[in-house]
């Protein structure tokens, strides 16, 4: 369906496509659970795609994004390799850039739960706690802690190579009734600059679903 600045009607109830005044795009429902958004190279404002309750995908000009409902209320977002620009995925108010070829399920994370500043000392030899949040559709406790990296730093290991991670009823970090996964990241392995303002986490569930989430950080001196 070719659209130019018009509202888009879709069969998928949880997907809303909003075109800017100067947006031009093709929106195709390629399957009952999948849509593909392709923006024109002449499009001067991004196409915004609202996904479920928490996710907004911004597709810039000459880009392609595929959004798939993998289970009820659970979505993956991909930026096709043919895209000329990245797409931006915003979840819970935090934005993550998806480069061409990226394909992840957006996840909500909280670096240093309980802290509003998320301060990180890159000279520290300790660890930084990070919570991966569960939602009604996503069980964060299915994430394999050994696959998790934050800014390229892995989860710190303890005896017998086990990951420093906890999953139990005390880890409902945000008090929503769903158990979250708390991991501890090795500070010495961070690939962050002194001016970094955010850090991105990647990981994989035991079912092979790749996740990605971003949170704000503040780098402090030694």
Write the layout of secondary structure elements.
Layout: E1 2-4, E2 15-19, E3 24-31, E4 34-39, E5 47-51, E6 55-59, E7 64-71, E8 74-79, E9 87-91, E10 94-98, E11 103-106, E12 109-111, E13 119-121, E14 127-132, E15 149-150, E16 153-154, E17 165-166, E18 181-186, E19 198-204, E20 210-216, E21 218-220
Parallel strand pairs: 11-20, 13-21
Antiparallel strand pairs: 1-3, 2-5, 3-4, 4-7, 5-6, 6-9, 7-8, 8-11, 9-10, 12-14, 14-18, 15-16, 15-19, 17-18, 19-20
Question: How would you describe what is shown here?
Answer:
The structure is a single chain. By secondary structure, the chain is an all-beta fold. 0% of the residues lie in helices and 45% in strands. It has 2 domains: 2-103, no CATH class; 109-220, Sandwich (Immunoglobulin-like), CATH 2.60.40. Strand 9 and strand 10 (94-98) form a beta hairpin. The chain is globular and about 50 Å long. The mean pLDDT is 90.
What oligomeric state is this? Answer: single chain
pLDDT < 50 runs, ≥5 residues: none
Strand order of the largest sheet: 1-3-4-7-8-11-20-19-15-16
In the CATH scheme, what's the topology name of the largest domain? Immunoglobulin-like
Ends: how far apart? 55 Å
DSSP, total strands: 21
Total number of distinct structural domains: 2
CATH architecture designation of the largest domain: Sandwich
- Estimate percent helicity: under 10%
Report the mean per-residue pLDDT as an integer. Answer: 90
What is the helix tally? Answer: 0
Look at the structure and give the CATH class of the largest domain.
Mainly Beta
